[in-house]
Design brief:
The protein is mainly beta and 259 residues long. The protein folds into two domains: 150 residues, Pnp Oxidase, Chain A (Roll), CATH 2.30.110.10; 85 residues, Sandwich (Immunoglobulin-like), CATH 2.60.40. It contains two helices and 19 strands. A seven-stranded antiparallel sheet has the order 3-2-6-9-10-5-4. The chain has a seven-stranded mixed sheet with strand order 16-15-18-19-13-14-17, with no helix packed on it. The longest helix has 8 residues.
């Protein structure tokens, strides 16, 4: 364990590469923004985080709007190019890899070919010690007719593989009182009936069924239930939650808490 922050720690995680388009007096500038994220649902807000080297930082306060294209995996070369040169080096929009879509709610065109493209109105900026975050409200969305996979930054650029398949139940349990228990669990879709089987286990392997129940609204499980009489001390007991087709989940019994 070390308190020293490793250099370039962010490269151990992932982000979806964005291409930011901003109008200026001579045309449109495009740049790659590795740190591009959705930051609010309703209304839909997106943020791009830019370094001091980005000419776009000087353009945004005047433009007051921008477009953001989340790159598809086919756009790795374009993302690399757009992030390698600045506005002062060359007009990057002369590349034949860059085609613009016509804006509908702003004056800023958007780069086609991505997972989705967003027209945004600048709503806020947040200064950090080095970088600056620009937050925009999404006012128009352009999504291709055929879904595309995102281009992901994880040190190098990557495409996404197959979805991770969940195989096990994860459970938690706590006392609500001396006579009541709350159990929560998630797990993969049931291979058969949509049921959760609950039981109490003693430290020496005795098992007391607590019943079988359906899923909650979104397919997970959360239930308060009375504690039955059991032939072993609850201080040593655990909860087992089973679901058809999945490995069971186990939970220690958490003590009552005051809120």
């Amino acid at each position: 364990m070390s308190s020293t922050v490793p250099a370039q720690l962010w490269k151990t995680l992932t982000s979806t590469i964005g291409i930011v388009s901003v109008r200026h007096e001579s045309g449109v500038n495009v740049m790659s923004a590795e740190w591009s994220y959705f930051v609010n649902k309703e209304p839909l807000y997106v943020a791009v985080v830019l370094s001091p080297r980005a000419d776009t930082r000087d353009l945004l306060p005047t433009a007051k709007e921008f477009s953001l294209t989340f790159c598809a995996e086919e756009q790795a070369e374009l993302a690399d190019f757009a992030g390698s040169f600045s506005l002062g080096d060359i007009d990057k929009t002369s590349s034949e890899l860059i085609e613009f879509g016509t804006p509908e709610a702003t004056r800023t065109p958007w780069v086609t070919g991505g997972v989705t493209a967003l027209e945004c109105v600048l709503r806020d900026t947040v200064d950090f010690p080095v970088h600056r975050m620009y937050v925009g409200e999404v006012v128009a969305v352009h999504t291709p007719a055929t879904a595309r996979k995102p281009l992901v930054k994880h040190g190098a650029m990557h495409s996404l593989g197959a979805p991770v398949q969940r195989t096990a139940v994860v459970a938690a349990a706590q006392f609500l009182s001396e006579h009541a228990l709350r159990i929560a669990a998630t797990g993969p879709g049931a291979a058969g009936a949509d049921e959760w089987h609950l039981s109490l286990l003693s430290s020496d392997g005795q098992e007391v069924p607590l019943g079988t129940y359906p899923s909650a609204e979104y397919g997970d499980f959360l239930l308060d239930l009375p504690l039955p009489q059991v032939p072993f001390p609850l201080s040593d007991a655990r909860v087992k939650v089973e679901r058809p087709g999945a490995k069971p989940g186990y939970a220690r019994l958490s003590p009552m808490t005051s809120r």
